[in-house]
Design brief:
Length: 101
């Protein structure tokens, strides 16, 4: 129960950024089918996604490139990922959108 609540909190940080981005970030899954472990999303173009992944890596966020057959971006936030990491990624996403949106 406690882990479930924590996982919902972690995912909410990132999904809230996606939902409030006015289309800058576009989630793959319908809201009622969203994963708490893998958050997949795209951006308006592949070049911007590459820039996002590069800048994220330089800030210490690794493994955000999406699956090779689907593309886009993917934040894997399994149980070992702390809440603070998801909050930091959400802040990075907001900052990236301010700079590039």
């Amino acid at each position: 129960e406690g882990i479930e609540k924590t996982n919902q909190e972690k995912a909410a940080y990132i999904y809230n950024v996606i939902d409030q981005s006015n289309g800058f970030y576009k989630g793959h899954a319908e809201k009622d089918s969203r994963s708490l472990m893998n958050i997949t999303f795209t951006m308006s173009n592949a070049d911007l996604e590459k820039t996002f992944a590069q800048e994220a890596t330089s800030q210490g966020f690794i493994g955000l490139k999406g699956h090779r057959s689907v593309g886009g971006l993917r934040a894997s936030i399994y149980n070992a990922m702390p809440v603070e990491g998801c909050s930091a990624l959400a802040e990075f996403m907001k900052d990236f959108m301010r700079k590039n949106g």
